[in-house]
Structures are given as C-alpha cells and as structure tokens.
C-alpha cells in the first residue's frame, strides 16, 4: 500500500496516524500523571516536563512510523521483530530525553546519574515505544486490508461490467442476423418496397439500441417500446400473421429493467412461433407486480407438437439467464417452457425498482 503516495487513501491514513499518535500520547500523559501522583509527585508542577518529554518522544515515534511504512512487504514475523528492534533502539534515546529534561527542571541543583534508575526507565521507555510500534502496525494492516478490499471490489465491479457488456452485445449480432435474413427473404419474394421499409426500421432500431448503455437499466415503458419497434420490423415480413398484445398496467411502466432483457425472448417468439407455423401467431408481453417483485412475461403461439423447446432456442434463453444472474446475484429467476399444447411462456422475475 502506497501510504505516502497521492490519493484519498494516503490522506486518510495520515489523518488516522496523527489521531492515533495524539490519543496514544494523551493516554500516556494521563496515566503517568495519575501513577506519579499516587507516588507523591505533584501532577501540576510535573506537567510541563512530561509534556516536553512526550513532545520530543513523539518525534522518535514518527521516525519509527516512517521506517515501518517503508517495509510493508515484509512478512508478519519480520515486522514484529522489526518493531522489537526499533523499540530497543529508541529506548536509550527516550532515556536520554527524560534525563535531559530532568536536569533542566532541577537546575541549578547538581544531578548524579543513577544507573539503576536509568535501567528501570529504559524498560519503561522501551515498552512504551514497542506498544506504539505495535499499534502503528495494526493501523497499517487495517488500511492495507481496506485498500485490498476496495481494489477487489473495483475488480469485481469491472469484471461484472465486462460480463454484462459481453452478454448485452450478444443481442445485437443475433438480432441483426435474424433481421437480415428477413430482409433477404423479402427481396427473394420481390417485395422491394417492404424490404426498403424494413431496412429503414432496422436502422432506426439499431440506432436506438446502440445508444443504450449495456450496464444501465431502463424504464419498462422504454423496453416495451423497443420490442414493439423490433416487432414492427418483423411485421413487414409476416404481415397479417403477427399480432402483438401488451398487458402492462400504467403504474408498472416506470419499473427499472435491464436494457434489452426481453429482446432474446421476443426474437425466439418470432423465430420459433411465427417462423415455425403458417397460421396467425400472437406474441403477448405482460408485466405483473407482487410482493416487491416484478414479473415480465413473454408468451407466444407455436406448433402444437412436439410440446418441448424448439431446436436452437437455448442461446437466447441462456443469454437472459446469464444477464439476470450477473445483474442480480441470487435475487432473480428465469423460467421458460410450454404451458399448453401450442403455447410457450418465458418469465423473468426480478426485484421491483422504480425509476
């Protein structure tokens, strides 16, 4: 983790480190004043000396912190050993600072250096520096973990976005292939005028769909309008054999749905319904809301036998299922299958969200 580099994380860490230092030394000041007060030392008269000592020792702990910030790649045992070594190196410095402040405070009285007292002070000072080093290492670890979680979240989000785009972009080539086949069929039939209208409708439809961000959700009203535009293209080919029914209450039209989530289902309804029978075929789009859930239903007529999934329908259904799983992990469902002889239904179930 680049603690001293640019960015919000570095600034947050510096603020946290400063706060930790202030709290640590404030705690040392209060506890030492209380303990020395119990030993008979006036906490008021000794306060200036203790404050000077802690101000100078905070410089020592700053050096310890700077060293620890440069060795973030070491293993935990190595870091623990380094904290131990740094505390013992800083101990004599702390003892010298304490002795120097004591000399200044009692001046002009002569001071005799007491080796036994200095040794006791060394133990206390070293323990204090080691405690600071351990706290600072804990702070470093907490920020490293948080930054790692942020990076992983960013990677997961980008991977999800890439997956959603890949699934979304499967729609346009598949749709384009089907529509161009329809135009080719009109040309072969000699219906040049209808083929021309279909090309213009296709241009308008593609312009609209390509402007949609694959990671954005759209209101249900827009999604239904897009599918109506697609079916208007197909109606040029199938003419009086294709009927569209929409059953969506007005209060559901502002529900948010993944863009073009219905496109593969409508394509399959056209290909395996209208394209597989010579009679009139109805494609019905419906929306229902229940208990905080939104259901989108696509039904179509199809040949009565056999009553199973037509060949080649898997890609479109798999696309819808994969997009729902990526967009709403564990919170969306998709099902498709025959509901009666000659009738096919696909149902998308997702959380209700209003625009």
UniProtKB/TrEMBL annotation:
<keyword id="KW-0812">Transmembrane</keyword>
<feature type="transmembrane region" description="Helical">
    <location>
        <begin position="81"/>
        <end position="105"/>
    </location>
</feature>
<keyword id="KW-0418">Kinase</keyword>
<dbReference type="InterPro" id="IPR036890">
    <property type="entry name" value="HATPase_C_sf"/>
</dbReference>
<dbReference type="InterPro" id="IPR050640">
    <property type="entry name" value="Bact_2-comp_sensor_kinase"/>
</dbReference>
<feature type="transmembrane region" description="Helical">
    <location>
        <begin position="125"/>
        <end position="143"/>
    </location>
</feature>
<feature type="transmembrane region" description="Helical">
    <location>
        <begin position="16"/>
        <end position="39"/>
    </location>
</feature>
<keyword id="KW-0808">Transferase</keyword>
<feature type="transmembrane region" description="Helical">
    <location>
        <begin position="51"/>
        <end position="69"/>
    </location>
</feature>
<feature type="domain" description="Signal transduction histidine kinase internal region">
    <location>
        <begin position="162"/>
        <end position="242"/>
    </location>
</feature>
<dbReference type="GO" id="GO:0000155">
    <property type="term" value="F:phosphorelay sensor kinase activity"/>
</dbReference>
<keyword id="KW-1133">Transmembrane helix</keyword>
<dbReference type="GO" id="GO:0016020">
    <property type="term" value="C:membrane"/>
</dbReference>
<protein>
    <submittedName>
        <fullName>Histidine kinase</fullName>
    </submittedName>
</protein>
<dbReference type="InterPro" id="IPR010559">
    <property type="entry name" value="Sig_transdc_His_kin_internal"/>
</dbReference>
<dbReference type="Pfam" id="PF06580">
    <property type="entry name" value="His_kinase"/>
</dbReference>
<keyword id="KW-0472">Membrane</keyword>
